[in-house]
Write a structure and sequence with these properties.
519 residues, Guanine Nucleotide Dissociation Inhibitor, domain 1, 7-stranded mixed β-sheet, 5-stranded parallel β-sheet, 3 domains, Polyamine Oxidase, Chain A, domain 2, FAD/NAD(P)-binding domain, binds flavin-adenine dinucleotide, alpha/beta
């Protein structure tokens, strides 16, 4: 068993610390910010509590497995509420008729009915699509996501080899094309394509294997942790502390200390040295590699990032609103007619903020009365923008950079018009914006991206940066820029992948769960 320093107290850092401590290591976490949680942030003002990051709880079995690894369960740690509808969709309006959103309810019968209603005869096709999505998802969880790729053992498995021709097709094809070949209705196509954004990429770039994402929202369903996503952090942080993990906040790591090719600890901005045999960095890989290590020790030097693709940036607008907003579900998506143009604007060579944008709106006060004062609503608007800090940093009450505040004003006007809430702007009582400039400054996010490295084919599975340095012994990585990828469940898996490395475990699937404790 070793001494271990974890850099960063986001979900990946806390989860890694908890798993390693439970396995007998002596672990401390060093976080630069005053608060833990990283991108899973919260902000309170005038009786509103906003989640500033995640709002979709997907892949529940990954959370279940993580908690089981610590002898407990998601059910015991969190109060999870299933959302019905899973989300509402508003297409771009073309006239002055009443705005009516389309509710998407998870479950085969409901999804089939929705597809048949909008595109007669497509109910049968969506059943086959979702069967395939489920199969691909189960394969991913069983064989790919929990593989460190320290060996090719998992890839040489007989079952994988048998499925190789079909997998090759799904990996080389593009998601949007895969969808467009099967469905004609523009709204249905977008319902199947938008989850590419969860993967930090465009459906025109994502491999068609990622049609597996539709298994999550359409088949499994969408959950909400009552109290907000900080509850997920609270639960994991408590489990880590209960296992002896020390957490130091407000002192950023400025250097990973080396002796020859071996890591011996970290030095912080205040000059404190934390000695350890193992260092796990969960900060953005670009920052860890290019800012915390000398050039000679970098496995991913600055020039290698020219070939990499960041996830989009995000312009976030947090709004406290007077009165009720029944026009919006807990999750609402606004799909712009210029679907491809939106993705081209974000990822293309002439990158700029799309207008009108396809916008995501979260209204957690639809489910959780504690996130807004009585007779008020809590809104979170996410406008995907290019990963570019020059788009700006945010502020309170319109005090952010002009470029970002303009995006926010447009987004508010768009939600107002598309969802038919004529007086939305007049009812705003709290407003805060957050932009790519904030992500770069607060999290050292490469180019101010919001999510990590995009899941293009070249940055997925075996092609994604591994969780171990190829030049420094004892240095490991976890988090959204390395294996297996973006999002809370993937970050929990990345924590387990560090444990597998330390144990020398070469298996491709999840580790066996220990027997449950009573806590
Ligand atoms: C707006 C938004 C919406 C999202 N929506 C969803 C969603 O709905 N569902 C979902 O599953 N996922 C979602 N995600 C993704 C998810 O939030 C992230 O994948 C996840 O939180 C990343 O966790 P992490 O621990 O890897 O990184 P971070 O949360 O970035 O944590 C890294 C930590 O390292 C710290 N750090 C950095 N450098 C140093 C240093 N030198 N020294 C010390 N500390 C350092 C940072 O301060 C930070 O606390 C969303 C993300 C965003 C931003």
């Amino acid at each position: 068993m070793s001494t271990c320093v974890v850099i960063g107290a986001g979900i990946s850092g806390l989860a890694t610390a908890a798993l390693l401590a439970a396995d007998g290591h002596e672990v401390c976490v060093v976080e630069g910010r005053e608060e833990t949680g990283g991108r899973v942030g919260a902000w309170s003002r005038d009786g509103f509590t906003f989640d500033t990051g995640p709002s979709w709880y997907l892949m529940p079995e990954v959370f279940d497995h993580f908690f089981a690894m610590l002898g407990t369960s998601a059910e015991r740690e969190l109060d999870l509420v299933p959302l019905t509808p899973a989300y509402r969709v508003y297409p771009e309006p073309h006239d002055d008729t009443t705005r009516e959103g389309v509710d998407v309810v998870s479950g085969r019968a409901e999804v089939r009915a929705l597809f048949d209603e909008r595109e007669p005869g497509s109910g049968e096709r969506i059943e086959r699509y979702l069967d395939s999505a489920r199969e691909a998802y189960e394969l991913a969880v069983d064989r790919f996501l929990y593989d460190t790729y320290a060996s090719t053992q998992g890839l040489r498995d007989r079952d994988i080899l048998r499925r190789l021709p079909r997998l090759a097709g799904l990996l080389t094809g593009r998601l949007q094309k895969h969808i467009d070949r099967r469905f004609k209705d523009p709204l249905l196509r977008r319902i199947l394509a938008y989850p590419a954004v969860f993967l930090g990429t465009s459906p025109y770039e994502a491999p068609s294997l990622y049609h597996l994402m539709s298994h999550l929202d359409l088949d499994e369903g969408v959950l909400y942790p009552r109290g907000g996503f900080r509850e997920v952090i609270r639960a994991i942080e408590t489990l880590a502390r209960d296992r002896g993990v020390q957490i130091h906040t407000g002192d950023e790591v400025s250097e990973i200390i080396l002796e020859g090719r071996r890591v011996t600890g970290v030095r912080t901005a205040s000059g404190t040295v934390h000695r350890a045999e193992t260092v796990v960095s969960t900060a953005d890989l670009h920052h860890t590699e290019t800012a915390l290590l000398p050039r000679s020790a970098q496995s991913h030097p600055a020039r290698s990032w020219r070939r990499r693709t960041p996830s989009p940036g995000a312009a976030l607008v947090l709004l406290g609103v007077r009165g009720e907003l029944p026009q919006l579900a807990h999750h609402t998506l606004l799909f712009a007619d210029g679907w491809k143009e939106n993705f081209d604007a974000i990822f293309g060579p002439d990158a700029h903020a799309p207008d009108p944008a396809s916008i995501y709106v979260c209204r957690p006060s639809a489910t959780d009365p504690n996130v807004a004062p009585p007779e008020h609503e809590n809104l979170f608007l996410l406008v995907p923008v290019p990963a570019d800090p020059s788009i700006g940093s945010g502020g309170i009450d319109g005090g952010g950079d002009t470029s970002l505040e303009e995006i926010a004003d447009r987004a508010i006007a768009q939600v107002s018009e598309w969802a038919g809430i004529a007086d939305l702007a007049d009812r705003i009582v709290v407003r805060r914006t957050i932009g790519p400039g904030d992500f770069e400054r607060d999290f050292h996010a490469w180019r101010g991206n919001a999510l990590g490295l995009a899941h293009t084919l070249r940055q997925s599975a075996v092609f994604r940066p591994r969780n171990v340095s190829s030049t420094v012994d004892g240095l490991f990585y976890a988090g959204a820029s390395v294996l297996p990828g973006i999002g809370l469940p993937m970050c929990l898996i990345s924590a387990e992948l560090v444990l597998k490395r330390l144990r020398g475990d070469l298996t491709a699937g999840p580790l066996a769960e220990p027997a449950r404790e009573t806590r």
